[in-house]
Amino acid sequence: MKLSNRNIIYNRMLAILGCFVVLLVMAGLTDSYGASSPKTSVSPQEEHQLGERMYREGILPSGEPMQAFVKGDLPVPGTAFTCVSCHLRSGLGSYEGGVVTTPTNGAILFKPLDLQYKGVKQDPKYYPVPTRRPAYTDKTLANVIQSGVDPTGRTLNDVMPRYLIEDQDMALLVSYLKNLSSHFSPGVSDTTIHFATVITDDVSPEERNAMLVPLENYIKQKNTMAAYYKRNKFSARMAASMLYSGEMTFKKLSLSKWVLKGPAETWRSQLEEYNRKDPVFALLGGITNGDWQPIHEFCETNRIPCIFPITDYPVVSETDWYTLYFSKGYYQEGEAAARYLNRGEESQNEVPIVQIVRDSKEGKNLSAGFQETWRELGHQNPITVRLKTGETLSEETLQQILAKEKPAVLVLWDGADSLPALELLANNKEKPQTILVSSSYLGKSVWKLGKELRDITYITYPYRLPQDEERYNGFVGQLASNMKLQGKADMIAKESFAITQLLTLVMMDIRGNYYRDNLLDVIGMMRDQDLPLYERLSFGPGQRYASKGCYIVQLSKGDKPELVKKSEWVIH
Fold this sequence. Notes:
By secondary structure, the chain is an alpha/beta fold. The chain contains 20 helices and 19 strands. It has 3 domains: 29-179; 192-329 and 470-525, Rossmann fold; 331-461 and 552-565, Response regulator (Rossmann fold, 3-Layer(aba) Sandwich). The chain has helices at 5-32, 44-57, 84-87, 106-109, 138-147, 167-179, 205-231, 233-243, 267-277, 293-302, 330-342, 345-349, 361-376, 395-405, 419-423, 439-442, 466-469, 473-479, 487-509, 516-524, and strands at residues 67-70, 74-77, 94-96, 99-101, 113-114, 132-133, 162-164, 192-200, 252-260, 282-284, 306-307, 323-324, 353-358, 383-387, 409-413, 434-438, 457-461, 551-555, 563-565.
């Protein structure tokens, strides 16, 4: 409906009046916040939790969203414009799109700060003189949060929200910022950064060494160079200019082995004891044949980063923070299978789908990834047939399933024992149009798939194709002491090598800020990495699974088949 001129003028007057009220409220809040924070009636622990929630989630102690304005007068909910989204978990800030987000952590806020960043050309529109600001006080910190004006009178980028926060709530947020990354995390001394790796006693010596040797060799090389730089000052200065942090040139690394014994329900207490006696900055790698969940939960509780544990059974979570995985493991293969089917006729026509699932860790994770993703894509649950432990999928059982359900798609989440029954489908008139299997679950047996079924059998493959992987072998071999590794041990060594390369990049950019959350913040801002095994490792703030892809492949014809891509790496 077209508005009259009178209505247009009236609406504009309302908008102007609204902005005027906002300015009055903001001015009142700023003026009322005294030189010292108002006293709060909560315990120090509750105070920290409430301040943390404001910083990370944009939620006030009342449970209501914080209110804010951007671009001068555009109202936005604080939940959509949280402090953490720009200043990051550590409070160390970020640099993106030509805009520098300055640190908001306790170690920097309350001392003078040089506003010029090495190698960063700042826009004079947002960074006029002066280039150095004095230390914040409680009052000036409240003022900049509310009005966007820092202690020098400089107006910050208008993208930064101006928050409407009352005095008592502001006191909680200021208190949290005072303690945010105010002291280096445990595991860091003047000379050494202390790491650990977790190994469970169900891992074979060959696989244990495949994970451990590259890490130990890398740390040995790093420490040898640190000792060399102490003797050669010229080389040290060159290295320091590359690392952005002179003291990192001389910093040594150490690696403890936290060996977990016995059943998984005892691991947590063992980890707590290791950590009590020998606190570390972070966990590197680690390996188990079981679920990683007990170690994951230990890291979440103690806020200890765990970088790329080698496990097929990671915790799949959208909210947890402290463990960074290579991928979602078996779950991700099931997820990829569902997304691939969603692109074809199976999605359009809602054809019958049957998944046969072995009652095992592998089967359960594959099935969960497939079924949950298929449902999220708007489809009905597939028909699921479960095979008990020790039960063999016989030809008779398979034929009964096909005769009863008449599936157009058969999803088989089982190992090599199922292949004989599958092979007998070759000449069966009731065979499905499409069969989906997992390369990880089948292992080497995937190459034994009969020629008659290759045209209709699709395989989830979560790695770079073998024919494209050879170029990495030399680099990995050197750090793994050229151990003769095959199969799973070879893959473990490549994952361990990837950890060392990631650590090199992180140490270059951590800039002497040894806070655990900063370690993960730095990783989150890294570019995509081209490393062994995975087609691409990509990162982003808060992302916990670096490999987000999985190929769907088929076996080529002939006696020496190769894997042929039937999908892109990332399947949507």
